[in-house]
Structures are given as C-alpha cells and as structure tokens.
Amino acid sequence: LTLKMLLMIVYLAHWDWILTQSRKDIVSNISDAKFMAVCPIDRSKVELENYYEEIIDWKINRNKILDFSGIRNLRKIIKALNSDDIVHVFTLKSGLLFAFSNLFRNNKTKNILTVTGLGYLFSDNFKAKFLKIILGFFIKHFINKNFEFLIFQNDEDQKTFNNYSKYQGEYYIIPTSGIAVDEIEIKKDYRNSNLKVIMATRLINDKGIFEYLNLAKLMKDSDLEFYLAGDVDEGNPDSLSKRDLVKIKNNNFINYLGHIDIKKELHDYDINIVMSKYEGSSRILLESLYIGLICLSNNIPGTKELGSKFNNSFFIDDNNIQELKKNLDEIINYDVFLENNQNISFENGAKFNRELINQNYTSVKISAAYNKIYQYLRQEIESYRSEFI
Fold this sequence. Notes:
The chain is an alpha/beta fold. Helices cover 42% and strands 16% of the residues.
C-alpha cells in the first residue's frame, strides 16, 4: 500500500472547504514534507489535487452531527496510516470524529488538533448546551487519549476548552490560519459618500446575519449601500434555512450577492462588518484590513486581539446596533472623523495594517510555525515555543 511507504503529514477535516482555504497555502509553503488530504470530496477535487500529494475521500455526511457510517470509513483510513505519520486535524468537530474513529484502538500516529473556534458545541443554543453535557465525559477522555498537541487561535478559547476537557498535553496559541497576500487586490480609492458596506460570511445564525439586517434597516435613510455575501452551510445545525435565504433575497435593506471571490472583489467595497458571536480568529477581518477596508466588528475573543493592533478598525461590545450606527455615522462624516483621529487618513491606516500583517499574519509566517511543530513531533528539534505570545 502506497500509504505505508510514505512519511506523511495528513490534513484531516470533515469538509473539503476547510482544507482548500488557508491550509492549501500552508501546505504550499512547507517544502520538506509530503501532505495528504483526508476529507469528503465535494466541489474541490481539482484544487485538492493541485496542493496535496494524495487525497482520500472520507465518505461522511456533513449534515449529521454524528454519522456512524462516516466514523467507520475514517477508522479504515486511519488503520492504513504509517505509525510515523503526523495527523493534523482541523476544527473541533473533526477532532471529535477522529477520536470516535480511534475508539478501542491504540493510537499509533502523532496527532495535532487545531481548534479554529469552539463553534456550535459551545454556543448558546439549547441543544448544543445539552449535547455538551452529554459528551463531557467522552470528550475529556478522547481528547487526552488522541492528541499530543492542541493549537488554539486565541487565549479565551484555549482556557474555555482546556477547563472543559481537562486537557493534559501541550498546547499553544497560533493566531489565525494566515492569509496569502500575493493575489489580493488592494483598495485604492476612498470616499465619504455612497459607501458600500459588506458582510461576507457563511450564512449561519451565530454569524449575526439577522443583526446585520437590523442594522441595515436602521440605516435606511443614509446613503450607505448594504451587501451580504455568502452561502448557507447545510452541514451546520446553526445554518440559515432556504426559507430564510428567500427572505433575505426579498428584503429591501440589503443586496444579497451569494458567493464572491474575496481576493478579487472585496476591494470594491468600503466598509466590512463582522457580527459573529464566536470566532477562533476572523479570517475575513484580517483580509479586509489588508485590502484596505474600514472594519467594524463585534468585540469577541476571535477579533479583539486584532483590535488593539490595527488601524481603521472599530470594535463594539455585544453587537450593539446603536454603537454600530454611531460609528457608521462618523465614518460618513469623513472630515469630522479625521479631525477626531489626529488626521490619520484611512489610506495611511491601510498601509500600516498591511505592514503589520506582512510581518505577523501571512500564510508564510503561520506555515513556519506549523513546520516547527512537525519537526518537534518528529524529534528533529528539542522543543517548540510559540512565536505568537
């Protein structure tokens, strides 16, 4: 079997989209390893083939919280891996499915879990709270048994999850999954009238979609134009329904765009709004700051670490609609805004943001950190200490 002859780093996720976002950029920046993608293959086969040495179709139904057939399929895949392989699992859901697949087996690979956000299980949803109680004992056992290393994207997620799981292994903070900046089109023109506001996100309730609609309705008498980009996430129990999507398309306050190419289209907008209630680290916020948009964000663990570092950004507690409106009104009144901010222009703020991202948050930077972890697990270096402290 080919798998037995290769020393691989296996990237595993319950959705192929997860492995064809920033992870493909991480893979392309690590030259001294071979990578395998294990995920359900939906629309991304060609892209996966372009970046990964091998791809294995993990046949799992993403629409089910616990797909037992998918767990059996993953169990067969895991059994075929070489004992020297490193398995790097992305997202908490994928980590739990991996752990269930290893049930009653001795763990022979070296395994890492990157918690990209605590997600549905730690949300305020009643079903999620009940599920978290039911799974508590199993998670404490499975996480400690299966993973030598946990990676978090912010301190608060790390504390919350480690307190819950009683995790005993090593863990580090690596903020964001990094962004590839080479193909990003930069915003060049700034104005203070007919500004275009955008929210670009998966259409799930916890991303604040309906709060955004309320904000657009509240600003209906301004000259701002509001846009929403993204698709429903049918594999997520918190996803908007198709009926919800019809209502969004028929509303009078925002323009629904569907999917857009962030790297090539986001520069056409002026203001990005993030109203998510939970984030490991907000990729769209980082991309928007690099492109040069003015950013308004809910002040949550996955965004506030960026708030103290970047210009052109405003962070609002608890998605307070009136505070968001106040900030938008100030941005519209551009001359007054500049006077209150020591004449620091949005253009100069964008240049500062790009320099900061180039130094700390590119996929090249994150790839280097990941590679040190792989070298550490293979005992090629004596220790690992996160550069992001």
